[in-house]
Amino acid sequence: MDSISDPKLFAVAAAFSLVGLAFVSTKLASFVKALLDLYVFSGIPLKKFGAGNGAWAVITGATDGIGKEFARQLANKKFNVLLVSRTLSKLETVAAEITTESGMEVKVFTMDFAKGDPQDFARLGDLIQTLNVGVLVNNVGTNHDFPTPFAEEADQVIDNIIQVNVKGAMSMTKLVLPQMLEKKNGLILNLGSFAGLVATPYLSVYSAGKAFLSTWSQAIGTELRPQGILVEHVNTYFVVSAMSKIRKPTALIPLAKPYVASVLAKIGLPCGADVPFTSTPYPTHGLVNWVINNVFSKTFWVNKNDSIQRSIRKRALRKREREAAAAHKTN
Predict the structure, then answer these.
(1) CB neighbour class for 62 (10 Å; exposed up to 12, middle 13-18, buried from 19)
(2) Which residues are noted in the entry as substrate-binding (predicted)?
(3) Domain segments of the chain as ranges
(4) Which of 37, 52, 111, 192 holds its CA 20 to 30 A away from the CA of 27?
């Protein structure tokens, strides 16, 4: 007796076929949605958050790379901008450039997020309360010098990553929330990383900090959405910057200008991400995010990261050995 003539076997085969069809259909629908988000749909207009109406954007880590580009593009979209970073001379240079280019008002505030000085945050809070803040960009960040096993990592490096990447974002958000809650409007962008999407051995503290940023954004995003405040965790692969130590753009690694433009154009759209209050707006990043979510297992991707970081570590150690040898010869 074959399966076609056996009603029970036929029913089981049909059920499995339906499950398979539903699974494939769901995957296909999510992929099509990602493509539409990335290439067709527009995000929430920045006017909703006060662009052109006297609102301010506060950007941390604003003198280089992504942070500087956020400040420039938000000013060009008619936000006044408050630049927060460590070096006054760089802040003044960027402020002058933005004022000349956009005609918008620019203020600067110097602080070292690695110190986590409560007095710095108190003084910054006093300044922020005099401004109508519509947007906060939590961009400031730091990383391991190069891939290092946790057991060998310096305590100061660990402390700096937690202080800057985790506590810095929370402290800044606390400063802007009172007025955003009062007016029931605001946008908080938390700059994340694929290192938080997939655990990254040898960058363990940075990876864990970015994973925290993802789950924290989901939690406070749920809390604040009824109050009219949008929290968005911006998932990011590599971007050409001093922090990434990458100098040449590729299809997967954009310059800061097109990357930031994609973020601001896709506010509120997941773009390949599959967790709440998260967006992966740069097109190739969004496609890779979708693949990570839907192809192979998390174990596969963690092991892939392990292999990549081991290779980077070997190259970094060989470079240090060459530099040490050259310095020894010079001496």
Answers:
(1) buried
(2) 193
(3) 1-40, 44-313
(4) 192
pLDDT, position 1: 44
Find the Cα–Cα–Cα–Cα dihedral 132, 214, 259, 95, rounded to 10°.
30
Residues 280, 193 contacting (CB under 8 angstroms): no
Q: What CATH fold (topology level) applies to the domain 44-313?
A: Rossmann fold (3.40.50)
Angle at the Cα of 164 from the Cα atoms of 161 and 165, rounded to 5 degrees: 70
In this prediction, residue 331 carries a pLDDT of 64
> Which residues on adjacent β-strands are paired with residue 108?
83
What whole-number distance in Å separates Cα of residue 310 and Cα of residue 306?
A: 6
Sheet of 106-110: strand order equals 106-110, 80-85, 56-60, 133-138, 186-191, 229-234, 278-279
Taking the chain (331 residues) in runs of 10, the rounded mean pLDDT of each run is 62 76 87 98 98 98 97 98 97 98 98 97 98 98 96 98 98 98 98 97 98 98 98 96 86 97 98 97 98 96 97 94 82 64
What are the residues facing 189 on neighbouring strands? Answer: 137, 232
Q: What is the pLDDT of residue 97?
A: 98
Cα distance between residue 187 and residue 280, in whole Å:
16
193 is in an annotated binding site: yes
Choose, from 206, 237, 259, 282, the residue flagged as catalytic.
206
* Rounded distance between C-alpha atoms, residue 246 and residue 301, angstroms: 22
Task: Report pTM.
Answer: 0.92
